[in-house]
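Proteins fold reproducibly. Look at a concrete instance:
___
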Amino acid sequence: MMNMNRRMLSRDEENSDDVEVSRADQDQINQFSTLHQKQTSLKEELEKKQQEKEYLTDVTSELELVDEDKLIPYKIGDAFIHLPVPEVQAMLETSTAEIDKEIEAIEAKLEYGREEMDTLKMALYAKFGQAINLEV
């Protein structure tokens, strides 16, 4: 949910000529913007992976109710192959473990990005104060 607490700058804040934006400052602002875009993309990817994991968990639960002698259609690429329940369960377990690793990797990237953004925020707010808004 986006933070909707925004306000207009006062004339004094808007016309503040005592703070100049250097090339290094602009680079930091650009880096913050890039990190924010990556964070948004990673959050979407994380949501998709979590939905996929939930789907696999649901399928695994449903398979526990199926007779082990039955053959279950399992999709590999564009084709369905009929496999015994234990094999399908093993394959689903492997897929779930892979998704767990992917989720952990995405969460680590998100945390690293948050730390980088916080560092940039502190530096930029220290220099520009109220003249800059980095709240996302």
Notes: The two ends are 10 Å apart (CA to CA). Residues 85-128 form one domain. Strands lie at 71-76, 79-84. The helical segments are 11-14, 23-63, 85-128.
